[in-house]
Amino acid sequence: MYALVDCNNFYASCERIFQPKLKKKPIVVLSNNDGCIIARSDEAKALNIPMGVPLYQIESLIKQHDVKVFSSNYALYGDLSNRVMQSLHALVPQLEVYSIDEAFLDLRQMPYHDLYAFGQEIRQTIWQWTGIPVSLGIAPTKTLAKAANRYVKAHAKETGVFVIEDNFTADIALAATPVEDIWGVGRRYGRFLAGHQIQTAFDLVQMPDSWIQKHLKIVGLRMVRELRGEICYGLELEPHPKKGICVSRSFSNTLTDLSLIEEAVATFAARCGEKLRKQKSCANLLHLFLFTNPHRENDPQYFGSKVLHFSAATHSGFDLVTMALKALKLIFKEGYRYKKAGVMVSGLVPENNTQTVLFDINEPKRLKDHRVFQTVDALNRKLGRDTIRIATQGKGWTTHQTQRSPCYTTRWEDLLVIDERIDFRGKHLRGLY
DNA sequence: TCTGGGGTCCTAGGACCC
DNA sequence: TCTGGGGTCCTAGGACCC
Asked: Distance in angstroms, CA of A278 to C1' of B11?
């Protein structure tokens, strides 16, 4: 049996831990540049605030119901996610971290007979150790565990756990799962299935394999088999290295000036370098894109994109920034108001296994760069991101965030203050209270 | 005025090899 | 009049996930 553990309204729950007065209050969390709603508490969902809606479109609703609004704080969410995952790992050794707020557990080795009671124990423990509420779906396959988890949220919120252990409980969950809520059915397939009078997961599993494979392809067939209780996806215990890495941002204001776009692009390329070095990979290709604001239909639109090859795979910040700026010069056109850019690297290979070129005159430079960036990364880890950076990155490229909560768990200065008369070293402060 | 940022896998078609 | 049969690799696009 597998369990899918899912943190309830994860980002909103993270914010609430440190502001308990927000219990039972509607909370939303915003995307970069405070653009769209990307997370909602139950109370915000009850106000019919949709996922992904731009903040400015629901401004009056926010005011009317006194919804608490947060900019996204990924340092906080990432750290709390680690705590949840570590806590789960302490309870069940075999686990796959599936996303920032979800994990699959392998319960087969566990000496428990009452899975429902064990699910409750996990829930209580995570709540006690981290302050994050979680829900569990337990079932013979990952796709069914996903469906069981969704069933909890839709029909058994108070209990927080649902177990699919036989045909009877499977049919309950399948019949209660609309096709578009199945793990593996998106908007496109959802519309297609609705057009064929297939409303629920229960309807879908009745269809013949040949029909499924013809229309939903091999991935769809695996999904249906999993819904029928046949394991197609095992647990992936080791996180495998990424095959591509992308850093992209919208600009808070549209940019027209090449030098400002250069700063942004250099920053994205440098960030790709950090990610590459972190997973010990080198890139063979760099892909740059730059475009105008597609929402402003009256503005002239332009979508520029360019792929360049490195002569030898690299993760040097110098190489990446140089190549990104070269690509930028090739696609930049005067007279447009640019809104977003991004750098993607691909053709990734392990750093100790790169194919070099014959008569490689750059080898000394590569070795030197490697040492330089080991030092740069170490300094930035210790002193803060971008303390050491490439000059083209400018003074430090940031997004627009007005409502960000403190980094309670990752910065000394942001530690939650319980008694202002005592600082974090336990020293008494005079005259501050 | 204001609209996110990452990833994965599969398939079809074209260019090329013998 | 009649024009083979087997591969690989790469890319773009489309589906999906959080």
From this structure: 32
CB A303 within 8 A of CB A289: yes
| Nucleotide minimizing C1' to CA distance for residue A275 | B6
End-to-end CA distance of chain A: 55
Q: Is the CB of A101 under 7 A from strand C?
A: yes
Quick one: pLDDT band at residue A415, thresholds 50, 70, 90? Answer: confident
**A425 band by pLDDT with thresholds 50, 70 and 90:** low
In angstroms, rounded to a whole number, what is the distance separating the alpha carbons of residues A173 and A169?
6
From the CA of A48 to the C1' of C2: give the distance in Å. 71
Q: Which nucleotides of B are covered by protein (CB under 7 A)?
A: 1-11
Nucleic strand C under 7 Å from the C-beta of A335 = no
One-letter amino acid for residue A81 of the chain: S
Given a cut of 60, whether residue A432 has pLDDT beyond it is no
Average pLDDT for chain A: 93
The class that CATH gives domain A245-393 is alpha beta
Q: Can you state the angle between helices A142-155 and A209-227, rounded to 10 degrees?
A: 70
- Local confidence band at A427 (pLDDT 50, 70, 90 cut-offs): low
Contact A315, A283 (CB under 8 A): yes
Q: What is the nearest nucleotide to A188, using C1' and CA?
A: C15
- How would residue A433 be classed by pLDDT, with cut points 50, 70 and 90? very low
